[in-house]
Amino acid sequence: MSHNPLNQSSRRILLKHTLAVSALSITGLAGLLVPTISLAASLSKAERDAMTPDQVIEHFRQGNARFRENRPAKHDYLAQKRSSAAGQYPAAVILSCIDSRAPAEILLDAGIGETFNARVAGNISNRDILGSMEFACAVAGAKLVLVMGHTSCGAVRGAIDNAELGNLTGLLDEIKPAIEKTKYSGERKGSNYDFVDAVARQNVEMTILNIRKNSSVLKSLEDEKKIKIVGSMYHLVGGKVDFFEV
User: Fold this and answer.
1) Taking a C-beta distance cutoff of 8 angstroms, is the pair 200, 121 a contact?
2) Segment 53-73 mean pLDDT
3) Reported confidence tier of residue 66, pLDDT bands at 50, 70, 90
4) Which region holds residue 215: left if phi is over 0, alpha if psi is between -120 and 50, else beta?
5) What is the pLDDT of residue 34?
């Protein structure tokens, strides 16, 4: 791993900014910060280990704010590539949808070596994804499991409309329990995107519950407060990522 002092200093600038925002947000002053952020190195083990799960979430909140305001961190991807070549210390593992409009790393303004990423239509969990998450947290030390759904999700709409196509049919079946669980008084059809979005949110919540149910490894880490398993919804209109706990 690179030990370039400038790279490490640049990374520390970002981490100090994140911790400062965590404190300022309590007093309502976070919105006054308009920093110029430099990010010229990947996370080191010491930096990642010093972060709490809540600080990782705040870090992503601020990254999403930068994304929405079109003022991303000054990522030096080549430097991040070099500094992470000998080892990786991501702060989170993100389970999101394959939708081309919802790339989690860009939406959260994350760099190389900062997040593990799993993508599948409808952001559902299965044995392979659970195993990957267990590696991310129990072996590699990630502090956060983030399930990210999004508005106008085609997979959710397909599940609502009982779409059938090869292996996709079975995948959409995994989303259907969320349809039944969704409390909604309006038209319960895929053409009603308010209902689609309500189901997408419910699907995120059920994915989190399934992760806890089907992975004793992740459940134990969460019970020990070593990690958090949280949900989020990305809004295609406006670009905001809302975070929530289940």
Assistant:
1) no
2) 96
3) very high
4) beta
5) 32
Per-position b or e across 39-70, b if 16+ CB within 10 A of its CB: bbbbbbeebbeebebebbbbbbbbbbbbbeee
Q: What is the pTM of this model?
A: 0.84
- pLDDT of residue 98 exceeding 70, the answer is yes
Q: What is the mean pLDDT of residues 163-180?
A: 98
The pLDDT of residue 180: 97
- Segment 100-129 shows an average pLDDT of 97
Six-digit token pair at 91?
């702060």
Non-local CB neighbours of 70 within 8 Å, separated by 6+ positions: none
> How far is residue 92's CA from residue 87's CA, in Å, rounded to a whole number?
15
Between CA 45 and CA 139, with CA 64 as vertex, the angle to 5 degrees is 30
pLDDT in tens, 41-59: 888 999 999 999 999 999 9
User: DSSP assignment of the chain, as one string?
Assistant: ----HHHHHHHHHHHHHHHHHHHHHHHT-GGG-----EE-SPPPHHHHHT--HHHHHHHHHHHHHHHHTT---EE-HHHHHHHHTT----SEEEEE---TT--HHHHTT--TTSEEEEE-GGG---HHHHHHHHIIIIIT---EEEEEEETT-HHHHHHHTT---TTHHHHHHTTHHHHHH----S--STT-HHHHHHHHHHHHHHHHHHHHHH-HHHHHHHHTTS-EEEEEEE-TTT--EEEE--
